[in-house]
């Protein structure tokens, strides 16, 4: 039974999310028939699942809501704000029950009574109708019959990367010749990589068709291209079935771990193969290596989920919270389709909630205050996800009163986070960053919304764990923006491997802007700090050998510099040599190692030796402290 | 006369790698640019036979640079150098007129295959 239970919980969750989402939509537009139907269907499904599990309370509640929705559907009942509240309550009860939290039986009883009275008050209680069974989607493929059309089958090689883009190179070629008609699968599916290793392109008949095909064959990563014979076209409707299966996250994690190990093993094998100079071995290893990359890619893709899965939980929460605080808030979600590793997304659920909470509670002013300050009486909070180089940016912004710089300074001084002297060197953003320290909270009184103690500090810690960064910018009476920069995935990162005093360190590419070689005499000392000049800009230098107290430091004539960007400032990390650019598997530091500043993790390199991954923002702040 | 190539990438590291691959095959690296706008500028001056173009760079992106260059020189031969996961950007670049692309990390042979194909296009 426990197997079913797991499945029940995860599926009920999904339906509950869908339902509460629709309830909120219904609140905005009380005639939204789609929302009404969606709530009805969701509850119907939950009812059926709960009944088969023998969960009678859930069954009753979902059944009662389903009935109400049916009345609404048949226009026997009007949607009202009270009813919306009731629906949300019912959803909450089910949510708690699903997670085995106790809900007072009396509460459920009275809830059911209220629903009953609504139903009888509306005269007729109809029997619920059967809803349509969900069928597998059938996608018929268009029949082709025009004789002036030619079909070319394109076969991709096994090692093709960015398949959609590769297909587009072919299509663009045909488009430029003005002969492209359509493709199978259709263009959108091709752009979404919804095809295996072949596609069919339909083109206008041309005398140059042989030439066209030859040219396509010449495109890299295209294994073959040929004209499809007329008879090959099937008159029958071909049916493609789309099927999904559920896989437990644990299995997926295991799979990813094995794939990661495989990557390490591959690296080692490659080194051996190259040192043996055995052509045959190298070649067969190269093709194996591509397969490994593909496996890794696929697993990565499986792990990616749209951020909407977490983002869509918040509107409900913001609505409740702002109502309770009697503030008017317009909550906007953008970029919900952006994908992120499931593990990263899950670990962000609480931190984001926290930032949103803060935005409603501390950021957005009361209606009166806003009117007094000539602002729109409704505050706006935007939660947005964006793809950037090597990662995803999530921003939480509000148009509220902004952070109070003076209060932060006062608090920081009283908590001894900083002294007067250091304060002189801090710029505005540095000051705002002070609130990332644990135990920092400027709101004096304790309340049940924001609590005390855990503040932005907790958010910052979570980000650090997953290799992300947090930046804060704020403007008085204009609002505050929290920017979370996240890696796409946890396990494997692209890095530059460097050598410092005979030791090997790994620097994640995320932070690297560029790499530069300089001579010893290009290093200057300004105010006891080493700097160098790059395109008229003075850039502070950080010697890794100093930070990590390397033993065999030798004076060199030439150095290499890794230019990194941290919080909008550039720094040059001084190393002896660049060794190579490589993808590495990140392992977290454990035990006594976990306390070391400036290190983000450890990885096994291709030669089998473990090396440390540099925590770039950490190293920068260590260097700043001197 | 050797084929002249302009290499555009914000990372010196990548520029060097690509340059090494091409030099070995007898290409002449006539210039290197670290930003999109620099690339456009240098293209005008050098009018190389081929450009390798990174996609994400400070100031002007590689895609915008392709647009600028193609606007002035419709027959420019540009090869995009992309990272994994930049599929939609690559598509955009091809749409803008780039002729082909390679994906980092790459095998030298793979780069040369694309370079030669682009050069052979009319």
Major sheet summary line of chain A: 6 strands, mixed
List the quaternary state of the chains. Answer: heterodimer
How many DSSP helices of chain B? 5
In sequence order, what are the helices and strands of chain B, one letter per element? EHEHEHEHEH
Number of helices of chain A: 20
- Classification by helices and strands of chain A: alpha+beta
Give the low-confidence spans of chain B.
none
Side-by-side strand order of the widest sheet of chain A: 16-20-21-19-18-17
CATH evolutionary superfamily of the domain at 35-117 in chain B: Response regulator
CATH class placement of the domain at 35-117 in chain B: Alpha Beta
Fraction of residues in helix of chain A: 40-55%
Strand neighbour order, sheet with most strands of chain B: 2-1-3-4-5
Judging from the principal axes of the Cα atoms, what is the shape of chain B? globular
Work out the largest interface and the residue count of each chain.
A-B, 28 and 30 residues
Number of E-state strands of chain B: 5
Question: How much of the residues of chain B is beta strand, in percent?
Answer: 15-25%
Structural class designation of chain B: alpha/beta
Morphology call of chain A? globular
From the 3D coordinates, which CATH architecture of the domain at 35-117 in chain B would you assign?
Answer: 3-Layer(aba) Sandwich
C-alpha-based Rg of chain A, rounded: 30 Å
């Amino acid at each position: 039974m426990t197997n079913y239970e797991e499945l029940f919980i995860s599926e009920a969750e999904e339906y509950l999310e869908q339902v509460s989402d629709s309830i909120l939509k219904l609140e905005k537009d009380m005639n939204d028939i789609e929302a009404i139907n969606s709530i009805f269907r969701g509850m119907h499904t939950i009812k059926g699942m709960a009944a088969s599990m023998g969960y009678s309370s859930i069954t009753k509640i979902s059944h009662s809501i389903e009935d109400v929705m049916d009345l609404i559907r048949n226009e026997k009942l009007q949607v009202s704000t009270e009813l919306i509240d009731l629906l949300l309550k019912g959803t909450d009860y089910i949510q708690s029950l699903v997670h085995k939290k106790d809900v007072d039986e009396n509460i459920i009883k009275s809830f059911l009574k209220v629903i009953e009275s609504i139903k009888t008050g509306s005269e007729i209680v109809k029997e619920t109708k059967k809803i349509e069974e969900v069928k597998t989607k059938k996608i018929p493929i268009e029949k082709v019959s025009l004789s002036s059309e030619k079909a070319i089958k394109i076969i991709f090689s096994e090692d093709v990367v960015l398949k959609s883009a590769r297909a587009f190179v072919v299509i663009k070629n045909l488009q430029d010749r003005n002969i492209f008609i359509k493709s199978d699968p259709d263009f959108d599916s091709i752009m979404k990589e919804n095809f295996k290793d072949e596609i069919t392109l339909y083109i206008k008949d041309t005398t140059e068709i042989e030439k066209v095909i030859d040219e396509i064959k010449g495109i890299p990563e295209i294994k073959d291209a040929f004209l499809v014979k007329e008879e090959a076209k099937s008159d029958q409707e071909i049916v493609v079935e789309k099927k999904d299966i559920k896989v437990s996250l644990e299995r997926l994690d295991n799979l990813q771990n094995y794939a990661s190990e495989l990557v390490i093993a591959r690296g080692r094998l490659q080194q051996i193969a190259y040192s043996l100079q055995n052509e045959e071995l190298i070649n067969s290893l190269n093709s194996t290596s591509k397969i490994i990359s593909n496996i890794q890619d696929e697993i990565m893709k499986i792990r990616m989920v749209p951020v909407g899965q977490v983002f869509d939980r918040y509107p409900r929460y913001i609505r409740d919270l702002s109502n309770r605080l009697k503030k008017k808030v317009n909550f906007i979600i953008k970029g919900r389709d952006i994908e992120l590793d499931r593990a990263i997304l899950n670990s962000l659920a609480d931190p984001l909630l926290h930032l949103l909470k803060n935005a409603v509670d501390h950021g957005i002013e009361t209606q009166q205050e806003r009117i007094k300050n000539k602002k729109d009486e409704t505050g706006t909070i935007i939660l947005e996800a964006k793809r950037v180089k090597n990662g995803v940016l999530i921003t939480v912004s509000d148009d509220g009163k902004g952070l109070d710089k003076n209060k932060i300074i006062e608090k920081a001084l009283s908590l001894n986070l900083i002294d007067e002297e250091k304060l002189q060197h801090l710029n505005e953003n540095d000051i705002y960053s002070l609130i990332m320290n644990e135990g920092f909270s400027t709101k004096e009184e304790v309340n049940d919304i924001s609590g005390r103690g855990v503040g932005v500090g907790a958010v910052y810690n979570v980000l650090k764990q997953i290799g992300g960064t947090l930046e804060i910018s704020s403007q008085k009476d204009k609002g505050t923006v929290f920017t979370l920069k996240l890696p796409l995935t946890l396990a494997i990162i692209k890095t530059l491997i460097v050598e410092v005093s005979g030791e090997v360190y790994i620097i994640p590419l995320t932070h690297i802007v560029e790499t530069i070689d300089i001579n010893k005499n290009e290093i200057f000392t300004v105010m006891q700090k080493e700097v160098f000049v790059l395109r008229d800009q003075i850039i502070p230098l950080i010697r890794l050998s100093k930070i990590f107290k390397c033993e065999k430091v030798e004076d060199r004539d030439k150095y290499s510099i890794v230019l990194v960007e941290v919080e909008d400032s550039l720094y040059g990390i001084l190393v002896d040599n660049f060794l190579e650019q490589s993808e590495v598997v990140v392992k977290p530091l454990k035990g006594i190692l976990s306390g070391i500043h400036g290190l983000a993790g450890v990885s096994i390199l291709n030669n089998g030796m473990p090396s440390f991954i540099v925590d770039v923002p950490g190293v920068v702040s260590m260097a700043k402290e001197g | 006369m050797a084929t002249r190539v302009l290499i555009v990438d914000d990372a010196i590291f990548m520029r060097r790698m690509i340059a090494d691959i091409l030099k070995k095959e007898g290409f002449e690296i006539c210039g290197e640019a670290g930003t999109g706008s620099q690339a456009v500028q240098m293209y005008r001056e050098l009018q190389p036979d081929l450009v390798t173009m990174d996609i994400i760079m400070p100031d002007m992106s590689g895609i915008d640079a392709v647009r600028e260059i193609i606007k002035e020189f419709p027959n420019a031969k540009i090869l995009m150098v992309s990272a994994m996961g930049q599929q939609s950007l690559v598509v955009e670049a091809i749409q803008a007129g780039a002729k082909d692309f390679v994906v980092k990390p790459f095998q030298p042979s793979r780069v040369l295959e694309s370079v030669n194909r682009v050069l052979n296009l009319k």
